[in-house]
Specification:
Structural class: mainly alpha
Number of strands: 0
Strand content: under 5%
Number of domains: 1
Oligomer: single chain
Radius of gyration: 14 Å
Largest sheet: none
Helix content: over 70%
Shape: flat
Distance between the termini: 33 Å
């Protein structure tokens, strides 16, 4: 991947868009942890709920 392209894309995002991209990356990481068995389903649900609330993306 070309990091210059990523940098230009990242710099073109608003603060809210950057926060949302960070939220998605954190969610992907939690998904991977669950898939690999590194965390339990209960830990996943709690962490995702906490992340969602703290980032302001309440359901």
């Amino acid at each position: 991947m070309d990091t210059n392209d990523e940098k230009v894309t990242w710099e073109g995002l608003s603060h809210e868009e950057k926060n949302y991209q960070l939220y998605l990356k954190q969610k992907e990481l939690l998904d991977l942890f669950l898939k690999k068995g590194a965390i339990s389903k209960e830990q996943y649900k709690k962490s995702l709920t906490d992340l969602t609330l703290k980032m302001g993306y309440c359901k």
